[in-house]
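Hi V.,

You were right to ask for the full record rather than a summary. Here it is.
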Amino acid sequence: TLLLSFCPSSSLCLTLHPSLHPTDCSAGSGDFNHFPDDPEFADIIQRAEQAIENGVFPERISQGSSGSYFVKDPKGKVIGVFKPKSEEPYGHLNPKWTKYFHKLCCPCCFGRGCLLPNQGYLSEAAASLVDTKLGLGVVPKTKVVYLASDTFHYSAIDRAKSKGKKYALEKVPKVGRHFHRVGLPPKLGSFQLFVEGYREADFWLRRFEAEPLPENIRKQLQSQFERLVVLDYVIRNTDRGNDNWLIKYEKPGGEGDRQKDAEWTEKSSASCVKIAAIDNGLAFPFKHPDEWRAYPFHWAWLPQAKVAFSLETRDLVLSRLSDMNFVQDLCEDLYEMFKTDKGFDKTMFERQMSVMRGQVLNLTQALKDGKSPIQLVQMPRVVVERSRSGGHGRVVTLGNAFTQTFHCKRPFFTSW
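Predicted structure:
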């Protein structure tokens, strides 16, 4: 519904009814990107919008199965990665035809049966939220934003409307000025800050295998790796391979200055190794994988996964994860984020949180028992639901509020 109102700049203008979703009309993206609690992020988004207005458009990323884009600032420097909801792997405007063909030819088995479809953008932002709440610092800051660009994949109707408005503005200025926005409608999606100096984990892991790290740097890598494990396990990431997490390794000094390098690594307290957990769009399942594939954590086969969780990691997250009030606050924060989606279903969201609570319960016990990441992923899968009668599997009551259920069903191709 569009409401008519008067404003000083013109005799008549169109305003958006509050009940409408921004993508239902051609409103400007700048009207919705407000981050009063994060002025630094707000400034980055503003620079991205200015760049698009000046003709410096986002560039589509060739890798992956969805439409995702490198977003630039007015000088052409990449500052973020934007993943529109409508261009997700099975989204109706995905520009990469392979997934559409998959859905068309195999409608009974497309996608991941444990995930809600077309919520990847929320999963990306929610992973950043969990990372921040736990103080992990491995997920580049990610939030939900609105952006519009000629380089995004739009329907023929949207492009025709945009051309029609531009034509009206050129031919009949008095009519054209009443349009709230002349260009293409903004797209809803996740915006993740771009990280520089990182390479795919597989590259550095091979290098580290051939050229072992100094002991103190190895400990830094292990600490960062454990933070990645904590994140992935809590959000039950179903898509973590060595190609979608990154490592940054800054070796001090020059190649020939080995003595200087050794002195620096002994004295310096600054971190030389840093991990970035990107591509978190396939997390927060509403059930454990129990159909065809297990969607394992591929880091479980790395040598770092055989080392028991460090005291540093336990001190960082154990007190928070073992606090039911903290976990409940985390669920409430995620609820505020997920409920903004047009297809939000409270029942399905509660199932997602039941899986996450089970993951938290297992992780808490593993940290207390001094287990390693590989031992963690071998623990029985648990779902912690709000107490109710019935249920499947072995049930244990946790106080009056929640019920712990051991998830017994396994996928056909079992793995960690």
